[in-house]
Every structure is written in structure tokens, then in C-alpha cells.
Write a structure and sequence with these properties.
Rossmann fold; binds N,N-dimethyl-L-histidine; single chain
Length: 312
Amino acid sequence: MITEKTLFAQHVEKGLSASSKFLSSMYFYDKKGEGLFRQIMNLDEYYLTNCELEILMFQGHEIAHLLSDEHLEIIELGAGDGIKTKELLRHFPKDSTVYRPIDISEQAIIDISKKMSDWIPNLKVEGICGDYFKMLDNLKSNNKKVILFLGSNLGNMNDEQAKGFIQQLNLVMQKGDQLLLGLDLIKPKNIVLPAYNDSKGITSEFNLNLLDRINKELGGDFDRTQFEHVAIYNENEGIAKSYIKSKIDQTVSILENDTSFHFKKGELIHTEISRKYDLDIIRNIIDNTSLHLDHQFTDHKQYFTNLILTKH
Ligand code: AVI
């Protein structure tokens, strides 16, 4: 059987032996990484959280009205901390609405289920642990479904991957089901870049934690002090990119698969993209699906958007 550890080791070997080195941001989220991401979400420089919170706090009532149905299942992909979601959920009738957070982490499901039940007593909460699409497929029923995919999580995929992801969602949705998609909008560099290179250095810790993870889980000997976090944002393209840069010429060994990798001074490992959107980009992504963009909500600064897409 292929274990998580083997998959991680294979990914690291592939990424670090490529001519342009890369590692997937998917591996940011071990326990420490999750904690660091929560800290990032609370930074003022990471404007995404407050902008989406503002939309859901002040327009949540209207959004809920557009999503409502007699019997409704609200399914959230990636459980998160629930603070934003609660602002939406409080507007739905408790007796005919079920909230189902889906996450691969069992602990995340336990935490969010407890919190949401405390915040909104009487709301039916039924968390599900597992793979998004498998779980969504199992959930096919006569009830209308609303899928929440908030926080611009789609932005960590390139446009081809995002298309594939939305197409898979489209396949498991039934006519009348809706998707509430939270997306960060394209905006100037002086606003975006500090979100990915904050002054307290938490994003740097978050990115470099990947090296600690390789050391801990795969027996790597990365010297953290010889690498640094780099973030760039290309305004025309609308994509923030994160890298880990080698400060010196060095060789790193990884015991797990008995490999070693050479890094030149200044060489980059690409670790993450955070795509920013406009309506043309999103229309291109939902092209070839039967999802229609029905409503758009934005915060007062127009930094972030929540879109309602309906399956026709
Ligand atoms: C989870 N995701 C939407 C975050 C983002 O903005 O791309 C992850 C993140 N990376 C650095 N800071 C936050």
C-alpha cells in the first residue's frame, strides 16, 4: 500500500530534481502549518479574511435569501475556522438546513462541528471526513445543495487545475444546486504583496515550514537558516507566487529515499501560486460546465468577491 509518507517522498524527489525546482503548497498544512495559516488569516496585511468577512456580515442576509430552499444542505469544502461561515449560516432556518463541513482532517471536522453548534444552537451540523468529490458523490439526494468554497482557495490552483476542479464539482451537482465561491480580485501590487510577505515574517515561517516537514518526516538535513522566503506579484498576470530561495551553494540529503539535491546560490524552489481573479478569468474557468454566474457580491473596497453560481 502506498502511504502518505511515500507520496510525500516521491513528490519531494520529483520537485527537487526538476530543472525548475518546485514543491506543492498542498504540503504546507501539517499541524504547525495549519497554526501558522490561522495566524496569517488574522494579520491585517492578509486583507482577504476581513474582506470576505465584511461581505458575509453585511450581505449575508441577501446571499442566504438567494440560496435558500425548503430543505437545504450546505456543504463547505475545507472546514476552516468557521468565523466567516457562521455569518452566513445564521440567516438560514435551523429546522430545515443541514450544515456539512467536509475536510480530510478529522480534527478539523470535530473542531468546526463543535464551534458551529455552540455559535448557532439548533443548527443541524453533520461533518464529513474525506475526499471532497467522493463525499459529494455520496451525498446525492433530493435536497437542494449549496456548496461553499470560500477564502479564495481556488486560487492555489493554476487555471487548468481550477477548470478541472470546477468541472468535477459540476458533475456532482444537480440542477438547481448552487456554488458560493469566494475569490480574491486582481488589484495593485502594493496591496497584494504584503499579504504574501508580511512584516512579522509569519508567511515566511509558513513557507519554510515545508523544509522542516521534509527534515522531520523524511529525514532531510535542510539548514533552514540557509534558505529564505521570496514572494512576487505580477500585476498584469494577477498571480502571487511564493518561492524558497537558497542563500548559498549547498547540497541537501534526504534519508527516506536516499537522495541528495544541489542548490545553487540564489536558486528558487517554487512553492505556491495565489491566483487573483476578474470576471473574464472566472468565466473562462466555468466555461464547458452548466454553471451560470448569477450574482456577485463585493466588499466596499472591491478587493474580494463572493459569486453565486447556479447549475442549470
Ligand atoms: C489558502 N490560500 C487561499 C492562501 C492564499 O492566500 O493563497 C494560502 C496562503 N499562502 C500564503 N498566505 C496564505
